[in-house]
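Quick start: what a row looks like.
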Amino acid sequence: MAKEGRFPAPVQISEKRLAYVRAEVEAWIDAQISKREIA
């Protein structure tokens, strides 16, 4: 989903580890909830 731009992209925090920015994920969740409420 992140590659298609439908989910926030992860941030590389070390050679083998990725992390997500909490604020970006929470904003994405809020947007999904808003879409559901409109539909």
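That is the whole record. The CA atoms of residues 1 and 20 lie 13 Å apart. The chain has one helix and two strands.
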